[in-house]
Design brief:
63 residues, elongated
Length: 63
């Protein structure tokens, strides 16, 4: 399966930082809501965000 990458390097760093912060907050507050931090981390590592497609965004491509 060939997925067009639409997440750039700066976007990846921000997503990882936000994902870790959400996960840490989940641990701190002992809540399963911290698992939502996996979403930005996964999208950072696969370099694809499905929400960007309908919005027409692409931070990974220099034009």
């Amino acid at each position: 399966m060939n997925i067009k990458k639409n997440v750039g390097n700066t976007d990846r760093i921000i997503r990882i930082a936000i994902g870790l912060a959400i996960g840490a907050a989940g641990i701190w507050f002992e809540s399963y809501w911290g698992l939502l931090g996996l979403i930005p981390i996964i999208t950072a590592f696969i370099r694809f965000c499905p929400l960007y497609c309908p919005l027409g965004l692409d931070t990974g491509c220099k034009k």
